[in-house]
Prior knowledge:
By secondary structure, this protein is α+β, with helices and mostly antiparallel strands. The protein has one domain (12-75). Helices cover 22% and strands 39% of the residues. It is built from 2 helices and 4 strands, in the order ββββαα. A 4-stranded antiparallel β-sheet has the order 1-2-3-4. A hairpin with a 3-residue loop joins β1 and β2 (23-30). The radius of gyration is 12 Å and the shape is globular. The model has no long low-confidence stretch (mean pLDDT 86).
Amino acid sequence: MIDLVNTSRDTLVELxxxxxSEFEISLLWDRxxxxxxxxxxxxxxxEVSAIDAAPEVALDAFWHPFLYLAEVAERR
Length: 76
């Protein structure tokens, strides 16, 4: 898991980003641990959600983050 609080910005690479009227969505790669994460920031509440994504589904998770958030919630 990418620890965004304790990870140096030098190790994170933003691979892609997009915005909707409600969310800012970023696709991030941590070069130290070679992991990919989709980060969602709610523009109204400033709530941050993150999805660890396997490389083979990273772009799909970036474009359909709520599908993957539901899968994460089901596993808990």
